[in-house]
Amino acid sequence: MRLKKTYSSREVAAFTGLTARQLQVWHADGLMLPAIPPHRTDAGGYTERRYTPIELFELQVFADLRECGFTVPQLRGVVDALREHFGTRIFEAIGGGGLVDLLTDGHDVYVRTPTGEYFNLLNNPTTPLLAMGDLGRLRELGRKTRRARRKQVPRG
User: Fold this and answer.
1) Would 89 be classed as within a structural domain?
2) Does the residue 60 lie in any domain?
3) Boundary of a domain, candidates 40, 67, 94
4) Using one digit for the tens of pLDDT, what is the confidence trace for 14-41?
5) Fewer CB within 10 Å, N side or C side of the chain?
6) Are residue 82 and residue 103 in the same domain, yes or no?
7) Termini Cα distance of the chain
8) Does the predicted TM-score (pTM) go above 0.70?
9) Rounded CA gap, 96 and 11, in Å?
């Protein structure tokens, strides 16, 4: 994928598998604000919202978490906890040069600090966890971008 300065809602939907409606609702709720919000035109319509590559990567993480079964309020909790307790945003925690890493086991979302401390972002993000045993179940949330799968139309 060649990076562009901004991406339309349709392009973001194609890369992430999210729907344009999800993007619209998340914008209205303040979960993910596009770099360039829509605005009314002289002709009475609206311009298309535009997202930066950073926002595209963050939306990919949201899509991955939604696929794992995380709810929108949980996504908001992750965003808020990262900002309030670690002074960072999702992009920086997924390889954007931040000081923490974002991980999941499919049930919770964790932050790993450079000193090796783990924090559960959805359950008391201010208290470090005692990490014992096999941490192999945790996987880093990445910046992978994929095209949405299209439904196969039977030919015949």
Assistant:
1) yes
2) yes
3) 67
4) 999 999 899 999 998 889 989 988 888 8
5) C
6) yes
7) 34
8) yes
9) 22
